[in-house]
Amino acid sequence: MDAPNTSAYARAGVDIEAGERAVDLLKTSVGRTRRPEVIGGLGGFAGLFDASTLARYQHPVLATSTDGVGTKVAIAQAMDVHTTIGHDLVGMLVDDLVVCGAEPLFVTDYIACGRLVPERIADIVSGIADACVLAGASLLGGETAEHPGLLEPDAYDVAGATTGIVERDKMLGAERVRPGDVLVAMAASGLHSNGYSLVRHVVAEAGWALDREVPEFGRTLGEELLEPTRIYALDCLALTEACEVRVLSHVTGGGLANNLSRVLPESLSAVVERSSWTPPAVFSVLQELGRLTAADVEATWNMGVGMVAVLPPESVDTAVSLLASRGLPAWVCGRVEDVPGGRVELVGDHR
What we know:
Blueprint lengths: L7 H4 L4 H16 L6 E2 L8 E2 L10 E9 L3 H8 L5 H13 L5 E11 L4 H18 L2 E9 L9 E12 L14 E6 L8 H11 L6 E2 L4 E2 H5 L7 H10 L4 E4 L4 H7 L7 E5 L7 H10 L3 H5 L6 E7 L4 H10 L4 E8 L6 E4 L4
Parallel strand pairs: 4-5, 11-14
Antiparallel strand pairs: 1-2, 3-6, 4-6, 7-12, 7-13, 8-9, 10-12, 11-13
Helix pairs in contact: 2-5, 4-5, 8-12
C-alpha cells in the first residue's frame, strides 16, 4: 500500500525528489564548465549568456548544432557504465559546429529516462561536463525527464544542442576549396558514436558478450565499444588561427567519403589514399566478425579518421606539426582534383 504522503505523481512513476537530488549531485560538474559570460547558476528556467561580449566581433554569425548519441547508449546501459556517454554527446555537437569555423560557446542537454536514478544522471552529466571543458564551452542548462511506461526503468536516451560564434569573413565553406588543395586527416579515437546499430547487430549475430576479452583490443569488447568520441573543436580552432584552412569535414554517420563530399563544391572532386593510414583494430575485427564488405564498412564507420581539414599545400606542414604538438595524430590523406561532380574516391588499400 502506498504511504499516505506519497504524491499522485510519484504513484504514477515520476519521482520529483529524485530529480532534485540529481540536480544537487551534478552542480559541481556543471560548475567546472562555467565561462565568464554565464549569468546566474543552475536551476533556473533558462540558461543565461551575456551577449554583450560578442561586441568584439565585426560581423558575428551564430551557429547551432543539435544531435544525440544513437544506439551507443545501449552499450552503456548493458555495461552499467554511464560516465562516458555524455562525452560522446558533446563530441557530436561541437565537432559539427566547428566545421564552419565557429567557436562553441555553450551546450544544453536533454536526458529522458524510464526511472530517475540520481547517481546515474550525475554520471551522465559528469561526462558531458568533462567534454565541455575540453571544448571550451559552458554547460548552460538541461532537462531530465522521467518517462515511466514509455521507457524501461533502466533505459535512457541523451540529446543536446550547442551554440557557437564565428566572424562572417572567417567562415569556412566549400566555396573556399581550390584544385590542388590537400586533405589532412585527423585520427579518430575509435568508432566514435556512429554506426552502432550495425555494430550491435554484428556482435549479437556472433554471440559475443561485452565482457569478452579481445586480444586485438587489449581489453574487453565493451570497453572498446565505449571508447569516447574525440573532441576536435579546440584543435581545429587553433588550426584556423595558425594557417589557412579552406574547410573542415566531421566524419560521422555515412563514413569518410560521404561526409567529405558534403564540403566540396560541385565543380571539384577529391581522392583519398587508403594507404596513408592503418585503421584501428576495431574496424577489421568487426568487419571480419560480420563478414562485411569494404563498401559496407566504409559507408558506415569512420575507419579511423574523425575529422579532415582541406588546406592549400603551403599550409600542410604547419597544420600537421601543430596538431601533433597538441597530441592529435594527423597526416596527408589525399588531394582535391579539378574534376566536376563533388565526389570523393577512395583508392588503394590500407597499410
